[in-house]
Amino acid sequence: MIHLFEPAKQPGAPIFLLLHGTGGTEQDLIGLVSLLHPEAGYLSVRGEVTENGMPRFFKRLAEGVFDEADLALRTERLITFLEEMSETHGFAVDQLIPVGYSNGANIAANMMFEKRLFEQAILLHPMVPRRGLTLPDSSQVRVFIGAGTNDPICPASETEELTQLFEQAGADVDVTWSHHGHQLVMPTIEAAAQWLAVKK
Ligand code: MLT
Question: In order of start, what are the domains of the chain with their CATH numbers?
Answer without folding.
Answer: 3-197 (3.40.50.1820)
